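FAQ

Q: What does a record look like?
A: Structure on top, sequence underneath. For example:
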């Protein structure tokens, strides 16, 4: 006999129980059966029988996936999900439950209510009359606990008391004595007790507090930096990034958790993410310091340092380290480096083309589509997939890549974490935590898990790296003095002024300008964009304080508040050479607060930061195949009004406009509602609504002030950025 299967799925609607709502899918399997022997005599080709001699059987099964429920129902579902064919439920719950419950609450429900074998109210075994039923429940609970310890052991790190671990250990001694689970929990408890309360490994600290006693911060020494080979620098940066990224606790990335980091009581929240941010900013500051830190450098020497950093960025690309790659590109695009027009003229043509290609990876076109697709393409690949439109760069890339392959060691992938943080914050803003009846919206958690799963996959890939720390470089990296925004801008002006007056004669300068402009523009005219001095940080504040977006705001920050900065470029104008192409003869200035070249406030990019319906996330955002039909509607996004809702950014007057909060508004919201939500997001008293006014920023010198009871959605100017300011009334 031969068999063949054909499976179809059909929406079965919803099932409502007390305290829970389920999505139901009907799985229909068609089984086709036929006798092979004699098939040819019956007119079949090969072993295939004609349709009239085939037996078809149909088997239909029901798949239930919980959509919303009380905490008790969600915990109970941990024990029944496998029977309902919701095989991913346990992983989704464990990765996201910290957004709506504590480990202690979940553990008490699991052990006290469902794990008490004498009084269990678990539906399948409510009446325990047999040893078999008891064994089923014990196996279910053991399976959940094993998954919890495997996937989220950090949930039990609660020094100094470790109450949850002790409670779990007591339960196992009474119900599963001498089991592997019991010994495992004992070992975990000992491990936690023997470890000090960790921040992150000392090597990742780049502040002066991480230096050895007696060691001081250095003003960059060009000769010492030049002594490190490009691939060595890239490998060491990758080593540091990889170690930090592997330690990231995925649930720290959830929007509901990460967005609370600026509250006073949460200054130690999400330390693993803060460490990654600190490292990113340290790389960016190191690039700027090495280029500008030494006043005595000649213009050719400064250009060589820029070339070296571009080559290091290329090595990071070969190593699939997108974090340091973006940090280096962001530094080279920062205001203080971008404005070194004369210095850039001495950077070789091949290196400039390489720089342009690397910059294109992080283009904000279509919600950073290029970087998202590239990340997904190479997430689990053995080596980088390098393509270059320039022959010399292509040869160089392939040669370096071949050396990596000859070593026989696969490469992992270190992502730019800010992309995931932004997506999770936007999901948290766009989807409600609770649905009708006060039930926890678990569909939201399924959407968040799509992003969390990508982070976990990339963390696993980092195990493929085989890198050895170079203490000489790490010590040098630690010692680098991090220039403030004002210091770097001042040094940049001095360097450019010296270059203009002492290096190039008017004739040679004109020739050089013509060469560069011809290369990138195909014209004989080169009009660099006007540069603007950076805005000063407010007294006692930081222009890089935490924001709700992890990929938009500037990280030019007060050094004393490094941990409050999001993972972003110091300033991120577009490629200075590419930017010329789109702004010749224009009067576009550099907006240091937004970290981008601004074309006046009203004509910024309209591309969505997050658009689940577009499928642009290449894995971070669910695809149509992985999302229930009920969740396929396009979610609200920033800078776009759709289906009666959108997301706006609200900053407080007196702070940098990079310190904003993302707020979802609908066509029903009026000024008091939006103002109250903005105050809550900024951790201010929501009752003070009457003391504030909400204004939309139209341009640098224009604002739209809303009347007291105006409808924000219909009253706002939808042709400019959706940026608002909350200002105390005079």
């Amino acid at each position: 006999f031969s068999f063949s299967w054909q499976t179809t799925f059909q929406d079965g609607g919803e099932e409502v129980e007390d305290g829970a709502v389920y999505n139901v899918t009907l799985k229909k399997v068609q089984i086709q059966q036929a006798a092979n022997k004699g098939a040819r005599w019956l007119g079949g080709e090969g072993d295939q029988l004609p349709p009239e001699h085939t037996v078809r059987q149909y088997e239909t099964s029901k798949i239930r996936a919980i959509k919303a429920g009380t905490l008790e129902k969600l915990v109970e579902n941990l024990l029944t999900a496998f029977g309902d064919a919701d095989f991913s439920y346990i992983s989704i719950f464990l990765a996201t439950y910290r957004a709506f419950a504590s480990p202690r609450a979940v553990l008490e429900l699991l052990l006290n209510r469902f794990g008490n074998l004498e009084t269990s109210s678990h539906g399948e075994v409510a009446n325990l009359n047999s040893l078999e039923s008891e064994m089923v429940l014990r196996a279910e609970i053991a399976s959940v606990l094993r998954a919890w310890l495997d996937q989220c052991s950090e949930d039990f790190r609660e020094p100094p008391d470790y109450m949850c671990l002790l409670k779990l250990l007591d339960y196992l001694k009474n119900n599963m004595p001498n089991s592997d689970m019991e010994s495992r929990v004992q070992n975990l408890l000992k491990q936690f007790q023997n470890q000090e309360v960790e921040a992150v490994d000392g090597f990742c600290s780049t502040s002066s507090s991480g230096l050895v006693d007696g060691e001081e911060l250095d003003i960059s020494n060009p000769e010492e930096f030049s002594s490190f080979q490009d691939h060595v620098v890239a490998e060491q940066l990758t080593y540091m990034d990889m170690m930090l990224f592997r330690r990231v606790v995925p649930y720290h990335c959830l929007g509901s958790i990460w967005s609370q980091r600026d509250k006073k009581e949460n200054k130690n929240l999400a330390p693993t993410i803060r460490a990654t941010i600190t490292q990113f900013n340290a790389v960016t500051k190191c690039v700027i310091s090495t280029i500008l830190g030494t006043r005595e450098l000649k213009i050719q020497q400064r250009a060589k340092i820029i070339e070296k950093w571009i080559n290091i960025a290329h090595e990071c690309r070969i190593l699939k380290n997108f974090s340091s790659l973006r940090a280096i590109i962001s530094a080279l695009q920062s205001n203080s480096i971008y404005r070194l027009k004369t210095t850039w003229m001495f950077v070789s043509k091949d290196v400039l083309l390489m720089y342009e290609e690397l910059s294109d990876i992080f283009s904000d076109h279509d919600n950073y589509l290029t970087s998202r697709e590239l990340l997904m393409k190479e997430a689990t690949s053995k080596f980088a997939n390098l393509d270059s439109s320039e022959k010399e760069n292509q040869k160089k890339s392939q040669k370096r890549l071949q050396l990596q392959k000859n070593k026989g060691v696969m490469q992992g992938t270190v992502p730019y974490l800010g992309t995931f943080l932004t997506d999770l914050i936007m999901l948290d803003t766009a989807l409600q935590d609770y649905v009708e009846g006060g039930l926890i919206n678990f569909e939201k958690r399924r959407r968040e898990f799509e992003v969390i799963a990508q982070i976990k996959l990339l963390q696993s890939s980092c195990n493929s790296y085989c890198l050895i720390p170079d203490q000489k470089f790490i010590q040098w990296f630690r010692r680098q003095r991090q220039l403030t925004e004002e210091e770097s801008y001042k040094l940049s002006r001095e360097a450019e002024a010296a270059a203009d007056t002492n290096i190039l004669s008017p004739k040679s300068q004109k020739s050089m300008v013509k060469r560069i402009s011809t290369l990138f523009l195909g014209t004989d005219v080169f009009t660099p964009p006007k540069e603007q001095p950076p805005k000063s940080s407010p007294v006692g504040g930081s222009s890089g304080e935490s924001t709700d977006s992890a990929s938009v705001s500037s990280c030019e920050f007060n050094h004393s508040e490094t941990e409050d900065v999001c993972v972003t470029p110091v300033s991120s104008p577009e490629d200075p050479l590419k930017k010329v192409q789109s702004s010749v003869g224009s009067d576009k200035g550099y907006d240091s607060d937004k970290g981008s070249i601004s074309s006046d406030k009203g004509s910024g990019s309209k591309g969505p930061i997050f658009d689940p319906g577009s499928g642009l996330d290449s894995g971070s955002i669910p695809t149509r195949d992985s999302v229930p039909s009920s969740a396929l509607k396009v979610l609200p996004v920033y800078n776009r009004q759709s289906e009666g809702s959108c997301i706006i950014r609200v900053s407080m007057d007196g702070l940098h406009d990079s310190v904003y909060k993302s707020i979802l508004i609908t066509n029903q919201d009026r000024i008091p509602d939006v103002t109250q939500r903005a105050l809550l997001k900024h951790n201010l008293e929501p009752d003070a609504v009457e003391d504030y006014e909400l204004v939309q920023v139209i341009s640098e010198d224009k604002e739209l002030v809303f009347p007291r009871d105006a409808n924000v959605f219909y009253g706002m100017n939808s042709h400019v950025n959706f940026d608002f300011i909350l200002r105390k009334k005079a």
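Q: Is there anything notable about this one?
A: The first strand starts at residue 2 and ends at 17.
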